[in-house]
Amino acid sequence: VVPHYLVTGHTGFKGSWLSLLLKSRGHTVSGLALDPPIGGLFDRAGISFDMEHDLRVDVRDREEVIRAFKRVKPDFVIHMAAQALVREGYRDPLGTYETNVNGTLNILQASDQTDSITSQLIVTTDKVYRDSGGGRSYVESDPLGGNDPYSASKAAADIMAQEFLQNQRTKPGFVVRGGNVVGAGDVSRDRLIPDLLRSVSGGEPLIIRYPNAVRPWQHVLDCLEGYLSVLARADSRDPGGPAWNIGPSNQSIFSVQQVVEFAKKLRGFSALEVDVQPTHLAETDSLSIDSGRAQRAFGWENRLTRDRTLQMALTTVGRESEHGLRELVNSQIASFETDSTSAVT
Ligand SMILES: NC(=O)c1ccc[n+]([C@@H]2O[C@H](COP(=O)([O-])OP(=O)(O)OC[C@H]3O[C@@H](n4cnc5c(N)ncnc54)[C@H](O)[C@@H]3O)[C@@H](O)[C@H]2O)c1
């Protein structure tokens, strides 16, 4: 029998990639989310087309969520639906808490009530860790916190999911904590690579404020492969608890300026103009998480090098191309699945 996955948040960026990745592995995929963003990957890559069920359900609506689960009858649930933006969290804290906390509660309860489900994954973030300063990489047992509504709501969802899983008040499963990812089809604002692609296609200079800020870069496929490895290979009775870090590798660090220099060498980017407007505001140190537990327990590690990650994320197709983005994503998935030479050693 073909395994059936229910992905919540399948109309978003990670959800669209995950739907195509699962499909490419021969699985059946259903989704539950709000409408896709205009011009986003979901619509441009025609993802709805090969889903078993493509449902528009608000995770805050408990009865609707339970009804949807009973209709889909999945084997696995991957819960990614969230109000996922830090800035939107400040604008609408109530909506952010309702979606991220109550929404997750509804998913955990719906899983419990759906007989077909054998395992589930609750996606939180690296931002759940309490900022203890000092630039150390966080491990799963570190204290959680959150200095803004998005981070605090995700930390609350994370603690709640752990409680449900540990006390067996829902189906077995795991919590996964990842960081920012990059990949084709991301239309988010205020993120370097989408901003860079927009400035090239619009002929406008790219404004950068923190040229020396360094960030680890992880491709969305490395992150999703990590999530699926946890679901397939982690032991739900592991005394280390249900939470797993799935972060970028320590060797994947690049400054903003270096990303720009890297892009300029690629075909189509030579005309990129950059306007550096330094600001006095301090940029918070980018935090890092230690994913050694997943590496030790079942050998998961990022496969793509830093250069390959950026090169893949900067590959574009014309907006006019009907099938171009879907083909691009599928060809990147195919090369990710076969290209063991790209593994970071
Ligand atoms: N993208 C990243 O770099 C990143 C980093 C860390 C964690 N995450 C987490 O990964 C998950 C996916 O992130 P993304 O970047 O794809 O986000 P996204 O904003 O692109 O997608 C969010 C998805 O959630 C759905 N959603 C939002 N509110 C909903 C509601 N009330 N009911 C039903 N569905 C709702 C949207 O319709 C969409 O499908 C989120 O849980 C996010 O917190 C993302």
Structure in words:
This protein is of the alpha/beta class and 345 residues long. It is 39% helix and 14% strand. The chain has helices at residues 13-24, 41-44, 62-72, 86-91, 93-112, 149-166, 192-202, 220-233, 256-264, 292-298, 306-313, 324-338; strands at residues 4-8, 28-33, 54-56, 76-79, 119-123, 137-138, 173-178, 206-208, 214-216, 243-246, 253-255, 274-276, 288-289. Helix 1 links the parallel strand 1 (4-8) and strand 2 (28-33). It is globular, with a radius of gyration of 19 Å. The relative contact order is 0.13. Mean pLDDT is 91; it is low at 341-345. Bound molecules: nicotinamide-adenine-dinucleotide.
Which short descriptors sum up this protein?
39% helix, disordered C terminus, binds nicotinamide-adenine-dinucleotide, globular, 345 residues, alpha/beta, 12 helices
Please outline what is shown here.
The chain has 345 residues and is an alpha/beta fold. Helix content is 39%, strand content 14%. The longest helix is centred in the first third of the chain and has 20 residues, at 93-112.
